[in-house]
Write a structure and sequence with these properties.
Layout (H helix, E strand, L loop, with lengths): L2 H22 L5 H6 L6 H12 L2 H14 L4 H25 L4 H8 L3 H33 L4 H51 L4 H4 L10 H12 L11 H15 L3 H4 L8 H19 L2 H16 L9 H7 L4 E3 L23 E5 L5 E3 L9 E3 L4 H8 L4 H39 L5 H24 L5 H25 L5 H22 L24 H17 L7 H10 L12
Antiparallel strand pairs: 1-4, 2-3
GO cellular component, one term: plasma membrane
Keywords: Cell membrane, Membrane, Transmembrane, Transmembrane helix, Transport
GO molecular function: transmembrane transporter activity
Length: 591
């Protein structure tokens, strides 16, 4: 069968499964909508947490960014993995013991202030909408290639599906849907990796295969280094980023992980604190399967791409190339007139993506209007690395379709978690806690569902107009989380002296300076974006790493300001003391 037929079958089956689970597990109360009733088992929560965590950035974006950045891309692997360990060990059990529904709920009660709660809601919305943009872009990329629809149409389809089970089931429906989505995405990620590893090196374990030698006796990494340096690229195993920037990006990703509201809320869905620890351990194991495989897929994909495409006449190019060309996610322009594809350093086009014009070129290629003046003739969108790799390697059509279903599962699972954070922030933390404390459970549930509808519409807009590649967009969300939530949560747990004035001022300062830096140097909304370069970065720190600076600013200002005001009330200090006591940790405290 054709790839498209296989895709319709596999994606259709998985979507029917997700919708069926949502109907079976629909929420009937706010507690079920917010935290799945608090009765999810540690194993199920571990699977759901892994799916929530491994978004389109992990499934599609991380291998892509490692494939095209080489050694420099390892910061994403280190930051996201280390961040989850930090979250599981340092924060999750304490937050679960606190016994609240959301992160803004924790901050509002811990800092005895609705102003603090509101600032936390704003930060949660900033983080969630930035993060969900990457997920919706991932959905659009998958649909545009494998279901033969426009990227925008793909985003609309994804919006409809995720809205259905987020609207109907809330956290209860999302949790059990994410269990199924993890099974789909990990199977889809590993099957082609194992096949390609066997084909390239004879080793069925991808984590070992990409460090092994092929049939010619040459180690795969040495071969890739040779291919890249021969064409003028930096060796794959050499880095170009400064040590400072690597450190700050890694730290921003780690600390941002520990402040991500859609991951933290997962630990509120289990019955006991010890269950939160168990589910964190399960999730780490499930996450490690994908994260240790991603570097292998990156190496396989970059090697296959360079060997297949470089110096190949366009008229002899495999069919996968022209099919991806139709999506606008890969493009070739014949700058030297020889009819062959030259893949060299430098941008092939001006701008973020090719601008196609009507008609065909001399060799039958799609014509683009914004070619740059570099020698490079090939534009490849990083986000197609995982999706195109099985096609480039010549794997069976059912595997190619399976990868498409996995990409959708990864994107939709995280998008659902983020949309729930957005809806609960509005319905619970703003409406219920501040404007209408006497609202009935039924009305609060209705508001939460209406907020989910609004969130999906905004998320769709960001998916159609994303500020960059999936992984880089998500990295910005981590920076915003690190600069706003992380200090407030850490000091809320471990410092009885931290008061509301310090926490509020710190969160605002960290969020504002990080947002300004991203708006100026990443989005180009402030200053002269056309002349701004990496040389203009403050201290040589990229926008993806500036969240660490924002976090340091948050800590510093919070600690200084807190000393000018009175310590928290005795009742709040007792709460802080209680959530750190190991004994009696079986249940969440009531207060």
């Amino acid at each position: 069968m054709e790839i498209q037929t296989w895709t319709f079958i596999i994606v259709g089956i998985t979507f029917a499964l997700y919708i069926g689970i949502a109907i079976w597990s629909r929420a009937s109360s706010t507690k079920e909508f917010y935290v799945a009733g608090g009765g999810v088992s540690p194993l199920a929560n571990g699977l759901a947490t892994a799916a929530d965590w491994m978004s389109a950035a992990s499934f599609l974006g991380m291998a892509g960014i490692i494939a095209f950045s080489g050694y420099d891309g390892s910061v994403y692997l280190m930051g996201w993995t280390g961040g989850y360990v930090l979250l599981a060990l340092l924060l999750a059990p304490y937050l679960r013991k606190f016994g609240k529904f959301t992160v803004p709920d924790f901050i509002g009660d811990r800092y005895y202030s609705n102003v603090a709660r509101t600032v936390a809601v704003i930060a949660a919305l900033f983080v969630s909408f930035t993060y969900v943009a990457g997920q919706m872009r991932g959905v659009g990329v998958v649909f545009s290639r494998f279901l033969d629809v426009e990227v925008n149409t793909g985003v609309y389809i994804g919006m409809a599906v995720v809205l259905f089970y987020a609207f109907l089931g809330g956290m209860k429906g999302i949790t059990y849907t994410q269990v199924a989505q993890y099974c789909v995405l990990i199977f889809a990620f590993m099957v082609p990796a194992i096949f390609i590893s066997i084909m390239a090196t004879g080793n069925p374990i991808p984590q070992l295969g990409f460090g092994s030698a092929g049939e010619d006796g040459v180690f795969l990494l040495d071969k890739l280094d040779g291919l890249m340096t021969e064409l003028g690229f930096t060796a794959y195993t050499d880095g170009t980023k400064s040590t400072t920037d690597v450190f700050f990006i890694t730290a921003a990703l780690m600390l941002g992980t520990a402040g991500l509201p859609h991951v933290i809320i997962r630990f509120f869905t289990v019955p006991k604190v010890r269950d939160a620890r168990k589910s964190a351990g399960y999730a780490l194991l499930f996450i490690a399967i994908l994260y240790t495989t991603a570097p292998a897929i990156a190496v396989f994909a970059r090697t296959n791409l360079m060997e297949t495409v470089e110096d190949t006449p366009y008229q002899e190019i495999p069919s996968w190339f022209t099919k991806w060309e139709d999506t606008g996610l890969i493009a070739w322009t014949d700058k030297n007139g020889d009819g062959k594809i030259q893949y060299l350093p430098g941008s092939a086009i001006e701008g973020k993506k090719p601008m196609f014009v009507q008609g065909k070129g001399t060799h039958g290629q799609r014509k683009i209007s914004n070619a740059s003046n570099t020698a490079n003739e090939l534009y490849v969108d990083r986000d197609i690395t995982v999706l195109a790799n099985p096609e480039i390697a010549g794997l069976p059509n059912w595997i190619i379709a399976l990868v498409a279903a996995g990409g959708l599962a990864a994107a939709l699972s995280t998008a659902a978690g983020l949309l729930l954070v957005i809806s609960t922030s509005i319905s619970h933390d703003l409406i219920k806690k501040q404007f209408a404390p006497d609202i009935s459970d039924k009305k609060e549930l209705l508001i939460a569902r209406l907020a989910a509808v609004l969130a999906v519409v905004v998320a769709g807009y960001f998916g159609i107009h994303p500020p960059g590649f999936v992984a880089s967009v998500v990295a910005l969300a981590f920076g915003l989380a690190a600069s706003s939530f992380f200090p407030a949560i850490v000091m809320g747990i471990f410092s009885k002296r931290m008061n509301r004035e310090g926490a509020i001022t710190g969160m605002i300062a960290g969020l504002v300076i990080t947002t300004y830096y991203i708006a100026r140097f990443k989005l180009g909304w402030i200053g002269d974006s056309e002349t701004s370069t990496a040389n203009d970065w403050w201290f040589g720190i990229s926008p993806e790493g500036f969240g660490t600076v924002g976090m340091l600013v948050n800590f510093a200002i919070a600690l200084v300001v807190s000393r000018f005001y009175a310590a928290p009330p005795e009742s709040v200090q007792e709460i802080v003391e209680n959530i750190r006591i190991p004994s009696g940790a079986g249940e969440a405290i009531e207060h």
